[in-house]
Amino acid sequence: MASTTQPPAMPSTMRAWVRPRRGPARGTLELATLPTPAVPTGLSPDVMIRVSHVSLQFSTEMTMKMLPNLPFTGPWIPEIELSGEVVAAGEGAPAEVRDPGTYVVAFQSIPGAVLMGHGVMAEYVRLSGSQVARIDPAVDLASASGINGAGSTALKMIRTAGVREGHTVLVNGASGSVGSVLVQLCRIRGAKVVGVASGGNEAMVRGLGVDEFIDYHKHDPLPAYLAQQYGDNPFDFVLDCVGTQALFVNSPAYLKAEGAVVNIGMLEGIGVTTRNVLFNSWLPTWLGGVPRRYIIFSTPPARDDAVYVARLIEEGRMRIPVDSVFDMEDAVSAYERIASKRARGKVVVKVRSD
To answer: Where would I find the Enoyl reductase (ER) domain in this sequence (predicted)?
Structure first.
């Protein structure tokens, strides 16, 4: 029998950041008033969420500069991951995220957010229950907003590499949003971790559990230092969250022959990175290719990963570091902070005003 529960009263409009044209955040983003999404009813698998915090992605500004608005998509709203509170849900949604008041983390699919512009930088979002995971109310919502992006990416990196107890890994960009999670997950798996970051972030990175710390400013060029220090005891894996091409090119000097460089970064821009990926992946050694494996992949969020990372956080075994939290009205400044490349952990926008 269909439910007779009446949908909750909702405001007819909401605030959301939109991009009406292509360009950088400072020149294009506008805080607009939009219609609130319809409340899911009946057998719908969807969940309506009142957004608490949105975690920014480093790639968003690059996307805003490159991709034009498509004429049939409506207002282009940025971002893919959030924390918040369930307002209502259809009967087809997972049971654990149906009850109003349930604290959750959620994500929009990358095609939905990037191509269609159906992002989550808004006061209310409606998403499929397959993209929503319950979290304990005790978990800080600002930190939790980074579970899907940073958590899923770091988890996929160590699973792809096969990091396990007894391995020694280098994490480049250990103070960043993904690198800071990656350090903790590697330690949970029993690996020895050498973290690379700016010297100003040493205390933060050591607090995450690295066994050794390298200040890339002090030891420049970094590959030469790694060859000198680790040539006799090479790494099992190099996990690069920055996208430093020289780390791969010179890796035979400090990476085991059966090891691999796993890269998710685009430090040198999308064009140069694309060229590097092609050469790194396909150029044979007899033509000058590097005799080490190079792995790069897309990292769409996954609900199962979010559930796993949330459990680790609830158990006190790891945390999602937060660099800074900006008010909804000041979201453009948040984008400028993440673009500075000096953020230590996640840059977050607080959407909820109370």
So the answer is: 27-349
Pairing of strands 192-197, 168-172: parallel
Which residues have a Cβ under 8 Å from the Cβ of 311 and sit 6 or more positions away? none
Q: What sections of the chain are H helices per DSSP? A: 25-28, 60-66, 110, 141-144, 152-161, 177-188, 202-208, 222-230, 245-249, 270-282, 303-314, 331-339
CA distance 39 to 41: 6
Shortest CA distance to 241 belongs to which of 190, 169, 167? 169
For the stretch 112-136, pLDDT in tens is: 887 788 999 999 999 999 999 999 9
- Among 182, 189, 5, residue whose Cα is nearest residue 197: 182
> What are the distances in angstroms from CA 36 to CA 31, 49, 50, 230, 328?
15, 11, 11, 56, 17
Q: What is the pLDDT of residues 295-319, one digit of tens each?
A: 997 778 889 999 999 999 999 999 9
Beta bridge partners of 192: 168
**CA torsion, points 313, 128, 304, 176, in degrees to nearest 10?**
-50
Around 248, how many Cα atoms within 13 Å sit in the side-chain half-sphere? 28
DSSP state of 122: B
| CA atoms of 16 and 32, how far apart (whole Å) | 5
Omega prior to 284 cis, within 30 of 0: no
The verdict on pTM exceeding 0.85 is yes
**Alpha-carbon span 56 to 316, nearest angstrom:** 24
Question: Using the 8-state DSSP alphabet, how is residue 118 labeled?
Answer: B
CB 107 within 8 A of CB 75: no
